Amino acid sequence: MNNISFTRAENxxxxxxxxxxxxxxxxxxxxxxxxxxLMKYRVENPDHLIDxxxxxxxxxxxxxxxxxxxxxxxxxxxxAYHEEVEQRYPxxxxxxxxxxSTQLRNMATNGGNLLQRTRCYYFYDTSTPCNKxxxxxxxxxxxxxxxxxxxLGESEHCIASHPSDMAVALAALDATVKVTGEEEGHRSIPxxxxxxxxxxxxxxxxxxxDGELITGIELPKKGxxxxxxYIKVRDRPSYAFALVSVAAALELDGEEIxxxxxxxxxxxxxxxxxxxxxxxxxGKKASRxxxxxLAEKLIEGATGYGDNDFKIPLAKKTxxxxxxxxxxx
Amino acid sequence: xxxxxxxETIPLELNINGETVELDISAWTTLLxxxxxxxxxxxxxxxxxxxxxxxxxxLVNGKHINSCFTLAAMQxxxxxxxxxGLANGENLHPVQDAFIEHDAFQCGYCTPGQICAxxxxxxxxxxxxxxxxxDLMSGNICRCGAYANIYKVVEEMKEKGTEGTxxx
Lengths: 329, 168
Ligand SMILES: Cc1cc2nc3c(=O)[nH]c(=O)nc-3n(C[C@H](O)[C@H](O)[C@H](O)COP(=O)(O)OP(=O)(O)OC[C@H]3O[C@@H](n4cnc5c(N)ncnc54)[C@H](O)[C@@H]3O)c2cc1C
Ligand code: SF4
Ligand code: FES
Ligand code: FES
Prior knowledge:
The complex is a heterodimer of chains A (329) and B (168). Chain A is 29% helix and 20% strand. Chain A has a 5-stranded antiparallel β-sheet. Chain A has a domain at 227-328: 2-Layer Sandwich (Enolase-like, domain 1). In chain A, helix 5 packs antiparallel against helix 9 (166-172). Chain A is built from 13 helices and 11 strands. Chain B has 2 domains: 9-85, Beta-grasp domain (Ubiquitin-like (UB roll), Roll); 94-159, Orthogonal Bundle (DNA polymerase, domain 1). In chain B, 30% of the residues lie in helices and 15% in strands. Chain B contains 5 helices and 5 strands, in the order ββαβββαααα. Chain B has a 5-stranded mixed β-sheet, with helices on both faces. Chain B starts with 9 loop residues before the first strand and ends in an 8-residue tail after the last helix. Bound molecules: flavin-adenine dinucleotide (FAD), iron/sulfur cluster (SF4) and FE2/S2 (inorganic) cluster (FES) (2 copies). One FE2/S2 (inorganic) cluster binds next to loops of chain B.
């Protein structure tokens, strides 16, 4: 790791003030499970770390509109096992428990999880070109080994996929990311607008501004506790990232769909969701034929790069399986 | 506002196995390196240094974490328990006894981590079915493949209602 200095932030004002500093590269550290990993590989090279774990962001509390606010520094384990999350948002709990290991979940924070970076091998390997790590250097994955890479929303500059399971469930649930910064004060960013597609700036991954701090994640009232599924397809049944994952949530009136949400992980630079396509299925029957047609539409335009071609049929099948599991619940 | 310069070392106070220790180390020292290189607590192992093997598992406030993925400086106000802190004098912790009884190791390299992970699971009151145990213990890789006996230990500890170190 490079030489760093370290401080523990005692209050939010102090933390964002320090982060807004323009004279050196300052980073917040939550659980450290992604940042320290990347620092050890010299992919991230901050000058200064601000430990945010003592900030008062470590609670899960009800919101005035009947939702739940997940503090940014609450660990992934404490969030997934929280009674209200388990009961009212079981989709989120399930997705979070499908991620990483018990140890890592005991460390990883909700804010850090959203900002974890891609697992693209070339991004990690500083001896290879990578537009995300070094803008303008090229993308080694395009013609390289790209089994874990994106099939949707990618660009000629970057085909990386987003690795988070939590973010996929949050996308299905229409969560909102709460942030605060010195320049713009408090802001709320809908989860679907939080992460960005790579375009020609793959190094800019979210719409969080420099120095902004995530303070929490707000879940709306509706949690789909009755009909939901999170299916994660991966190379081993635990402790592996998703090749494809599907978060499905439905509301039914008899056999009729009254609300339907499908978010995909492992297939794009951000959790993949198409609310406009979902809406076409409101009022329709929750049948296999409809699920298949919907799956087809959700991944319309998908492109394989060789090693990841299998993700196209896999994603379709996993969508159908997840929706089927969700209605059988 | 100016970024503080990189000081060579910073003074830290850690609470490890019930004792307060003082250290003067670089800010970027991981908890794992602080334990092994500065405190000679070499029971905690370094396997991958990247969160992928679990050999470095220790307990912080009763929960198990990978000590390779946290800075010592981040753990100053916590209670850290390493494999060295589980026994009570000459009396091994029940999980340690069970690892011996069930022959749950071969080379032993992953064992301190496996034991701390088992104690952590007991503290968290999780792992209530054999499948759940396998899933929740997946953060500890055993290169020798002693898994069958390791899972026997965890299952037995759960059946007996063995206490970890603390309830959290
Ligand atoms: C072996 C391994 C397997 C894994 N498997 C999975 C998996 O299957 N699924 C999955 O989803 N994840 C997986 N992970 C990733 C893990 O979930 C993330 O590393 C973790 O969620 C990151 O959270 P953190 O708090 O440790 O982040 P940190 O490492 O502390 O921070 C990550 C980034 O976020 C920034 N940051 C942190 N908190 C804030 C905040 N509040 N405001 C602004 N910026 C902030 C930091 O500056 C840094 O840039 C795995 C990790 C490892 C090592
Ligand atoms: S896919 Fe993106 S992260 Fe991977 S090498 Fe290409 S530019 Fe880098
Ligand atoms: S050394 Fe920490 S997980 Fe391998
Ligand atoms: S006993 Fe050898 S690695 Fe587990």
